[in-house]
Amino acid sequence: MKNNISKKNRKGQVLLITVMLLATVITVVMTIAFNSTTETQVTKLEEDSQRALAAAEAGIDSVIKQSVGASVPIGSLGNFSTQGISGNAQVVAVSKPTFITPLLQKDEQYTFYLSDYPTFANPFTGDLNLYFNSEAAQCPSIEVLIVTSTYSQERYAFNTCASTIINAPLASNVPTQIDTVTFQWKTPTPITITNGIVAFVKVYGGKTKLGFKDELGGSLPSQGKMIESEARTTSGVVKQVQLFQSFPQIPSNFFTTSF
Amino acid sequence: MFERKLFIPLSVFLVGIYSFFITTPQVYAVACGGACGGSRICNPGYSCDGTCYHDYVDCPTNCGYAGGNKNKYPCGTHVCPAIPIPPRGTCDMSCGAPPTTLDDGACGTYECPGNPDSAPPAIPTGAVTYSPDPTCKDTYMATYSWNAVADSGCAGLNSTPYWAQGSSVSDFSSVLSGWTNTWVNSLNQTTTTAYSPGINLYFHVRSRDALNNQSAWSATDSVVIPTPSPYPTIHVSGPLSEDINGSCNPLSLVSSFTFNPVTVPALGVTPICTNPSSSSYECDFIIDNQKGLCVSPNIEVTMGGTYSGYGTIGWRSGAGGGECSGYPVSRSYAVGESDTNIPLYFTYNSILPTPIPTVTPGGPTVTPTPTTPPAAGWFKLKDTSFNSRLSARQNYIPSNIQPYDSSDSTSTHNIFIGTAGLLMQNSQLEPGANALDANGKPIYSQYNWYTDGYSYINDVDYAKYIDYIKGRKTITSISMLSEVSTGIYSITPDLDIVLDSTIFDSKKTVLVVEGDKNVVISSNFIPANGTVALVAKHIVIEPNVTEIKAILIGKTITTGDSVNALKIDGNVIDEESLTLGRSRSDGSRPSLFVVFNVQMYLDLLPYLSTSTYDWKQIQ
After folding, report:
1. Contact residues, A window 177-236, toward B, CB-based 8 Å cutoff
2. Model confidence, pTM
């Protein structure tokens, strides 16, 4: 009797241990399997993301030499279609009441278009405010050349905190924020322009961004091409990139008579 | 008692008196000359020979006396009769001989009276006069004169009877330099030195006779050297004339002119030169004869001055006051002269001919030296900003300017005309005196914007641009220039290439010439209806080229040495400092005229440009 009972107890223990072991193994296996699936999914997303970004950039490349209004389906580029990537790259015109240039180094100049490029149609007539001295500890002076549709010229020059340009008038020290940039100085009065087609603004003495603003708040002519490219993968990854390419800029060194 | 004592002596006395008169015979004393004898005896010292006589003289019997014994002489003073005995020698009775004692050979000595003269002549009376030094009319020579005097003695005047002294000190402790300070036989003496105004001179004189009997000094005569009347001023004036390569026209000064006349002699001559108007000058030469500087009343003047942009400034030879074709001269003037029409020639930006001949009126004819070399050329820029790469570049603008062509303006003397921009410079571009303001500051352009000490940083240069267009632009490589069309074309020649403007007709081209070979513009470069920017390392413009219509961008650009003017319509960008070899014959016009053509830049915008990029990832 005692032996039967003992055998039965012993079998129960083995079963219990076996169940526990199986549970442990199953747990381990399940955990490993889950992690592997997650990693696979993340990797795929990263791949899709990179693929989308590359596709978006490819879209930009595809239209960078095209004019405003041009559009290219991303899927038509290379083998992106086989990868199920969709989206468009398009060239759009940007026309805003203000415009801020990239940071111009000392002695660089910016070609600011007062009319449509490249036709020079719709010349600007109005009062243009010019803002400068966007960087701390800089005292830039500027020289402005306005060219009209008849190729007549008007020149202006302004100093800020340093009289780099002898005999140039002092600009107005009126800190003004345009978009996210704060400019410390501006033209004392707006520059009155009649049928202006282009303005060349050269920076002397220090680096600065330039801000342009129509006195009356009207939109300024487009200063370049804005290429917007969006690529979407089948997995739903979306990448959007923007590239602003300015219209042609004449280097100051090729513009100023020099010898 | 008493009576007895007195009685005895008194008796004795009375007895004695009685005895004397009763017992002694009577004797009478007889004076000299009185009768004597018996009781009449002569007074002592006299002898009686009937009468009393004097007998005590014993006259000598020699030494000139008659001798003898006692002589009876009546009463009174006895004088022995003398017999003179001549001396052995002869008494010196000449004038001035002193009394002497001579031996007479007999009884001793003989006293010669002599003929002494110790009286000096009279004291002369002096007087001083002065007269200008013939060789230095602003100093004076003094002459001291005195009268002749006679000797009051027997000697008469000495052969050198006068001694005069001249001194600058009243006590005559020193005498004037060169003065004959001894006995002379003259009645005046003149100083050997001329004396300056204000100096005191003192004189006195004395005389002497032949025996050197000297008179006292005369009273001191003095004189103060006078200040001469000032010399009259020398006046020279005339118009100003500008000589540009041998062509002279009136010059109008716009800034102060610095006179620099040189006079010979220089000491004591004060030139005072002014510009009574912007087109004339006048000089007064004041010769100082008040200080005893011995300044000649005749001076030689070489006129000169400094006026930025001009070489020789001075007078010239020729008829009248000098001619444009004359050569530099100096002029001689005497005090009081006035020359009122002597042009002062400003030779524009030239080098002096050497040597400079000097012409003296009436002097020998001087052979003219070669003409002045031509003036250096100058440049003018229109409608542009300018980066002056050459340190302290001289670009002198003449006064009389003429336009380069109808697009030029001569309303100012500015280097930069039209819509001129900023002049960037590290050291000042020198425009010359005709382009200065009243404060001597340069006026370069209408707004006159310029930098000073500015260090320019190139944002893009020739090499960077080539790299840029290769990376971002569509560039067409060609092997022959004839392949050029609108766009950016690049060629790498094995040899220098010569450009023909016709290949650019009706095209808008940026031609990039790579490599070190020269791009040569050998003839006028005017593409018809075409716009060209030439980008090359070395651009050579040959001397005969007078017009280029293009934007020239090079590491070096040479214009060639020539008298031909050169106009560049477009722009010139030379990374280094272009040396202007052009010097046109007509120096009143620019030798280089650069017109900034903004339309050409706009035509070439797609090619001669870069772009900026701003990339953003939105999502």
Report:
1. 197-198, 202, 204, 224, 228, 230
2. 0.73
